[in-house]
Amino acid sequence: MNWANCRLLGGACLTVSGLLLTCLPLIDTPLPAIVLLMLGYGVSVTVNTFANPAVAELVPPAQRAGILGVFSGLSVTAGIASPVITGWLLDRADTPAAGYTTAFLLSGTVLAVAGVLFALLVHPERDRHDPTRSDHVPA
């Protein structure tokens, strides 16, 4: 697998998702706003097709299932935290529109930054588990 292309494509997906979501408060018409929302969140989940194989390649085979389970568990915490954070932002905003604007700007910014970090830092070939390396820590 060509990890350079995967990390760049995965990072691009997250970054584009973030940019789409940060543009959402600028749209006043319902249909384009819905399309932007669907694209923004829809494109972001495509990174899982790159992240799961990268995680699987990083860990030793004996620990792979457990680490992928933890990774999946951490991935879905956004579904728990997002409504709480959005509700908190809405409660503190002057108007509901201002609260939603802040929520989409925050979500988009986090996704865009995560995309850049994904593109820069994901390097399974370099970080792969290798028991022959001198800095290897036994499992």
Task: Please give the structural blueprint.
Elements: H1 3-23, H2 30-44, H3 48-58, H4 61-75, H5 77-92, H6 96-121, H7 124-127
Helix pairs in contact: 1-2, 1-3, 1-6, 3-4, 5-6
Using only C-alpha atoms, the radius of gyration works out to 18 Å
Encode the helix/strand succession as letters.
Answer: HHHHHHH
Average pLDDT confidence is 86
Principal-axes shape call: elongated
Terminus-to-terminus distance? 26 Å
Counted by DSSP, the helix tally is: 7
Q: Report helical residue fraction.
A: over 70%
Reported for the largest beta sheet, the result is: none
Q: Report the sheet-strand fraction.
A: under 5%
**From the helix content, strand content and strand pairing, which structural class follows?**
mainly alpha
Count of spatially separate domains: 1
Number of strands: 0
Description:
This protein is elongated. It has one domain. Helix content is 78%, strand content 0%. The model has no long low-confidence stretch (mean pLDDT 86). Helix 1 (3-23) runs antiparallel to helix 6 (96-121) and helix 5 runs antiparallel to helix 6 (96-121). It has 139 residues and is mostly helical. The longest helix has 26 residues, at 96-121. It has seven helices and no strands. Residues 1-139 form the Major facilitator superfamily (MFS) profile domain. Its main location: membrane.
List the main descriptive attributes of the protein structure presented here.
single chain; 139 residues; mainly alpha; 0% strand; elongated
